[in-house]
Amino acid sequence: ALFAGSRLLKGYRGGHVVIRFALGGCTNRPFFRIVAAHSRRARDGKYLEQLGCLDPLPNAHGERVVGLNLERLRH
């Protein structure tokens, strides 16, 4: 029973792969990771690969920062 979780994940069929925002950060200071994950996984759960990040709150210069790995996004 202790290793049942790893056995279940070994044959995991989680639907198709989607690109989504995974929420991080803390209260009143959100931060998002742009990730590729199975469609049936939880929003902030395990993901296949991180493709970028998004900071929705403006910085000192009034800019919202987005970072993307375009090479991996095309793949």
Major sheet strand order: 1-2-3-4
Low-pLDDT runs? 1-6
Task: Determine and state the CATH class.
Answer: Alpha Beta
**Helix proportion of residues, in percent?**
10-25%
Q: Tell me the major beta sheet.
A: 4 strands, antiparallel
Q: Give the SSE string.
A: HEEEEH
- Which of globular, elongated, flat, extended, rod-shaped describes the shape? flat
Q: CATH fold name, please?
A: S16 Ribosomal Protein, Chain: A
Question: Can you describe this structure?
Answer:
It comes from Ibidorhyncha struthersii. One of its GO terms (cellular component) is mitochondrial small ribosomal subunit. It holds the Pfam family Ribosomal_S16. Keywords: Ribonucleoprotein, Ribosomal protein. The chain is of the alpha+beta class and 75 residues long. The protein has a single domain, classed as S16 Ribosomal Protein, Chain: A (2-Layer Sandwich), CATH 3.30.1320. It has helices at residues 4-10, 70-74; strands at 17-26, 29-38, 49-55, 65-68. The chain is flat and about 45 Å long.
List the helices and strands and how they pair.
Blueprint: H1 4-10, E1 17-26, E2 29-38, E3 49-55, E4 65-68, H2 70-74
Antiparallel strand pairs: 1-2, 2-3, 3-4
Structural features:
single chain, S16 Ribosomal Protein, Chain: A, ribosomal protein, 2 helices, alpha+beta, 75 residues, 16% helix, four-stranded antiparallel beta sheet
Concise summary:
This is Small ribosomal subunit protein bS16m. With 75 residues, this protein is an alpha+beta fold. The chain has 2 helices and 4 strands; from the N terminus they run H-E-E-E-E-H.
